[in-house]
Amino acid sequence: MKNLTIFLSSPNETGITMKFVVKFLGRNILNSKKKLINFVYLYKKNIKPCYDCGFCTKYNLSCSIKSDDMYEIYNFLETSEILIFASPIYNFGFPAPLKLLLDRCQIYYHNKYRKKIFASNRKAILLITGGSSNGIGIDIMEHQIHVICSLLGIKFLSFICILGTDKIIKF
């Protein structure tokens, strides 16, 4: 059984970004009984910002903030065989909830020196939608996801982007 986690960082659960995820995966995969599929709607999660307290430098893979949903998200990041980050472009980057998630992955930067091994053969893909057609910010978004994946021992496969979605009437 494959364990797939989709991090959706659009505030609109039925918008263009989600439609892109459904088209990308196909209804057969989404309805498959052979896969465990987790949808994580980041706008519904309570993710507090990293405030650089230094706790994660002292305690391996641990954060001093315990009163939010990040430990659930850490579990998905560490155990899912396939990760999909699905995001619209906001202000040339990720929307705030996904940016908060990435910032709280500081615990993995310190882990690289301790070498906790995560399961191998894991993969990640970044799906991006953009209202304009210029694509400014995509390279930075790809780089941010690539860095997190490398710290987790996940093979970053690629990013796929649909631009000009403000002009799309039907997807």
Counting helices, strands and paired strands, the structural category is alpha/beta
Percent of residues in beta strands?
15-25%
* Helix content estimate: 25-40%
Q: How many individual β-strands? A: 5
Biggest β-sheet: count, sense, barrel? 5 strands, parallel
- Based on CA inertia axes, which overall geometry fits? globular
**What separation lies between the terminal Cα atoms?**
30 Å
Strand order of the largest sheet: 2-1-3-4-5
Tally of helical runs: 7
Averaging pLDDT over every residue, what do you get?
89
Give an account of the 3D structure.
35% of the residues lie in helices and 22% in strands. The chain has seven helices and five strands; from the N terminus they run E-H-H-E-H-H-E-H-H-E-H-E. A five-stranded parallel β-sheet has the order 2-1-3-4-5, sandwiched between helices. The chain is globular, with a radius of gyration of 16 Å.
Task: Quickly list its features.
single chain, 171 residues, five-stranded parallel sheet, 5 strands, 35% helix, globular
Please render the helix and strand layout as text:
Blueprint (H helix, E strand, L loop, with lengths): L1 E7 L7 H10 L1 H4 L4 E7 L13 H4 L11 H10 L2 E7 L7 H8 L2 H9 L8 E8 L7 H14 L3 E9 L8
Parallel strand pairs: 1-2, 1-3, 3-4, 4-5
Short summary of the structure?
The chain has 171 residues and is an alpha/beta fold.
